[in-house]
Every structure is written in C-alpha cells, then in structure tokens.
Amino acid sequence: MPTTQPSPVVPPDDLNRSHTLARPDSDRSLPHIGVAGGTYTITVPGEATAGRFSIIDMHIPPGGGPPPHRHDFEETFVLLTGEMEATFRGQKITVKAGETLHVPANAPHHFKNIAAQPLRMLCICSPAGQEKFFMEVGVAVESRTTAPPELEPAQRAAFLRKVQELSSMYRTELLPVS
C-alpha cells in the first residue's frame, strides 16, 4: 500500500521583512567598497535575507581579482560583461559573459579578469557574511565603477595584515600563490 507524504507547510508571510530593490548605478546609499583592486557594491546584504545569502555587484578592472583563497560558504558568480580566468582546485577555466560559475564551500579558488575591459559580475554568497568582511577590510569609494585608491607599500602591507587578522573570523582562508 503506497504511503503519502504530508504536504510541507509554508510558513506565513513575515510582514516584518520587506523586498529589496538595488539600483547600484544611481543609489548613493549602497556601499561601494574597494577591495583587492576591484569595486564591490553590496546590493543585497545578509540582513535583507535573514542571513540566507548576500549579493555583491563586482566591477573588476583588467588584470584584477583576488588571490587564492577558500571559505566555508557557497559562492556563485554570474558574469554580466567581460571574461575571467577562474582557477578551481588548481584547474583553470575561462568564464564568459552570460555564464555562471558556482564554487562549493571549502574549495580552493581564485579568479582574474583576462579581458582588456572591466568585467562585471554578481557574486552570491550563501549563507551571507562575506559582504561584512569586504566592508571591514575595504575602503569606501564613490560609485560602482570608481577604482579603489592605489596603495603605497606601507598601506598595502597594513591592508594585508588586516585581511590576515580578520579572515578566520569571516570563515575565509588565504592560500599561497602558486
């Protein structure tokens, strides 16, 4: 005799939560942060999703991208414009506009803009929290496409020390450059 599964119950609408509409090119209240040579705009912070995920609009100049790292949360990149070389567990792949790359939690990875023009992509982190790390280590800039300030050697060393000090708090590990 077949058994039937009970229907899942969908909780009632939480009227304390609201929708989020991000306009990164015109909304000056959105945080635009210079990090690792790129500009990251937090369009949907974890507070808007009850910590389930965050969305970061990334503007990466030619040659830009973070160093090798890994973290214990899921990360998905949706390329809107441009082209990047992503290294996932030591294997290089090319990701182009219109494509999506998902990186599972804990997997070593990094990426680099290999095109002659800036790339733009959406980064979805689940659960949320990475956006707080970027806000803590980065520097505020004027707009979604404003380049971060060039760092003098002493400033760069201080930035790297801060990243190293805070990375474990944000469940991130920087890896050696190979």
UniProtKB/TrEMBL annotation:
Residues 14-30 have a biased composition (Basic and acidic residues). It comes from the Bacteria. InterPro entries: Cupin_2 (IPR013096), QDO-like (IPR053146), RmlC-like_jellyroll (IPR014710), RmlC_Cupin_sf (IPR011051). The lineage of its organism: Bacteria, Pseudomonadati, Acidobacteriota, Terriglobia, Terriglobales. Residues 58-125 form the Cupin type-2 domain. This is Cupin domain protein. Residues 1-30 are annotated as: Disordered. Pfam families: Cupin_2. It comes from Acidobacterium capsulatum (strain ATCC 51196 / DSM 11244 / BCRC 80197 / JCM 7670 / NBRC 15755 / NCIMB 13165 / 161).
